[in-house]
Amino acid sequence: METFLNWFPLDLPLIAQNFDRFLVGVRVTLGLTFLSLALGAALAVPLAIARASRHRVLNPLVWTYTYVFRGTPLLVQTYLLYYGAGQFAFIRDSWLWDPVLSQAWWCALIAFTLNTAAYSTELLRGAIVDTPAGEVEAAIATGHSYCGRLRRIILPSAFRRAIPAYSNEVIFMLHGSVVASTITLQDILGVGRWLNGRYYLAYEGLITAAVLYFIIVFAITRVFRWLERRYLRHLERRREPAAAAVAPPMGIK
Asked: I need a surface site. Which of 70, 144, 186, 247 has the fewest CB within 10 A?
């Protein structure tokens, strides 16, 4: 065993000795990622409805918001909030400064939430617009109001069809959460960088962080694959039984 450890290029005992720090980093990463996704999804629903309805006032406002946050890097957004907000006296003197805007965790959460809400808004808007016309016409024919159509027909259908694309957004948000390590938070990458800096290493911290991200992404993909099988089964192409694919008798076309 000692011979294997001496030959192995990574210092596994050192990683194991500091693995409790990585577990804390996992907790920080998952907390920021999934809380921002939940808040962003809650914001995205009404914003997507406003975009899909083409309201003359709300539509351009929501479009501007999504364009700004989708057109600029998450790192820049986080830096502007964490380092830039304190440059304004009215923000430093407000009641939000001490408990919220002066804290790295809250700044990261706000930036992540606004960013993922912008992407989720456009994703859900596309799913709403692509709702089959037959479903909408059937709802109108049965006397559903606009709100009733949204609640019972359009939104449930859009949510189901958005599952595959939203799985990518969840993974992108997880990867984007590494930005938190640049504003003093000890997420997975932050702990990896700490380990490399503390012991003058090149690979151990980063490779351990990469393996942890790989495991989390694998779990996320499995969950979304199960959701797709459960809620999109009716959209799968039905395969005819092999027994039905028998050639017709000669002389019959």
From this structure: 247
Residue at 14 is within a domain = yes
- Over residues 85-110, the mean pLDDT reads 90
- Please check whether residue 161 is in contact with residue 127, taking contact to mean a CB–CB distance below 8 angstroms: yes
Average pLDDT over residues 132-151: 86
- The answer to whether position 237 is within a domain reads no
Using DSSP, state whether 132 is helix, strand or coil.
coil
- Cβ–Cβ under 8 Å, residues 103 and 33: no
Q: How confident is the model at residue 143 (pLDDT cuts 50, 70, 90)?
A: confident
Q: Is residue 109 part of a domain?
A: yes
The pLDDT of residue 10: 75
As for how many domains the chain has, the answer is 1
142 assigned to some structural domain: yes
What is the distance of C-alpha 83 from the center of its chain? 24
CATH label of the domain that carries residue 154: 1.10.3720.10
Q: Which amino acid is at 73?
A: P
